[in-house]
Amino acid sequence: MIDWFDANLVSILNGLAIGSLLFILAVGLSIVFGMMDVLNLAHGAFFLIGSYLAVTFVAGESWAGFFTAIGVAALVGLVAGGALSGLTEPLARRPILDQALLTLGISLIVAETLSIIYGNDVLSIGEPPGLDGSIAVAGNPYPTYRLMLIAVGLALALIVWLVVEKTSIGALVRASVADREMVSAIGIDNRKVKIAVLGVGSLLATVAGVLAAPVYGARPGLDKTILLLALVVIVIGGLGSIRGALVGALVIGQVESLGRALVPDLASFILFGTLALVLIVRPRGLFAGKVAHS
């Protein structure tokens, strides 16, 4: 067992890094869908915007360009989330398929626009200075940047949990989920809560795209791949659950990394087999949170 662990340590660490990125992306999607009842299939396109912003601003592998890309991506995510809230508001009491079609259309428009602007080639960037080397982990060299991603993902999980569970802002969001009519009765506009949650969720998607750019680069089709993985994560973890998003992301990260390393021809089957197994045992996911109601 120890020999197997040592032989596959790099793949396990890659799974943690992938899982951390998936959590940053999926937690926003999970909260927006599970709590605000908005199915945002444009989430992957927002991630892709972040990746291309990283390519645009990170010239010469500088920290200034990297932080500029994160700042611009955060702003774009907030604006996109606010716009998405306005677009989906008229569909709030209609079947969820209507929202899916609307956000899918937005996703296709965004992806095509990015292809026109940047072309169809795979674009890549380097890691920021100081994170472009390797660190020995149990005798195996491992990229410093990916270790940073693991730390950022875990830190963000703690921050999001503290905000949602331990602050008045989180209490307001939870109250809006539990009883929107009561929240409205005390003078709080549920639409503003929805805009804020969608804005933060979209911000996390665009920032995740920036953070992922040194690993995945930016290319057409990445939005669909990453959205599919994020949807698998939130279905496994349970809608509206931060803990579920974290556990689901870490599980899928390991399945994705170890599957491709050990049995590359069966990697996709293992991924969706894991999803099927979880749904058979726990149809609502491992840690289903409270879901919004109209």
Describe the structure.
This protein is mostly helical. The protein has one domain (16-281): ABC transporter involved in vitamin B12 uptake, BtuC. It is 74% helix and 3% strand. It has twelve helices and two strands, in the order αααααββααααααα. It has a two-stranded antiparallel ribbon. A hairpin with a 2-residue loop joins β1 (134-137) and β2. The longest helix is centred in the N-terminal third of the chain and has 28 residues, at 9-36. The protein starts with a helix and ends in a 13-residue tail after the last helix.
Short descriptors:
ABC transporter involved in vitamin B12 uptake, BtuC, mainly alpha, 294 residues, globular, 2 strands, two-stranded antiparallel ribbon, 12 helices, single chain
Q: What is the class in the CATH system? A: Mainly Alpha
Counting DSSP E segments of at least 2 residues, the number of strands comes to: 2
* N-C termini distance: 51 Å
CATH architecture type: Orthogonal Bundle
User: Mean pLDDT score, rounded?
Assistant: 86
Per the principal axes of the C-alpha atoms, what is the gross shape? globular
Helix content: over 70%
Summarize the structure.
The protein has 294 residues and is mainly alpha-helical.
Note the topology.
Layout: H1 2-7, H2 9-36, H3 43-57, H4 63-88, H5 96-118, E1 134-137, E2 140-143, H6 144-166, H7 168-178, H8 180-185, H9 190-216, H10 222-237, H11 242-262, H12 267-281
Antiparallel strand pairs: 1-2
Helix pairs in contact: 2-6, 2-9, 2-10, 2-11, 3-4, 3-5, 3-9, 3-10, 4-9, 6-7, 10-11, 11-12
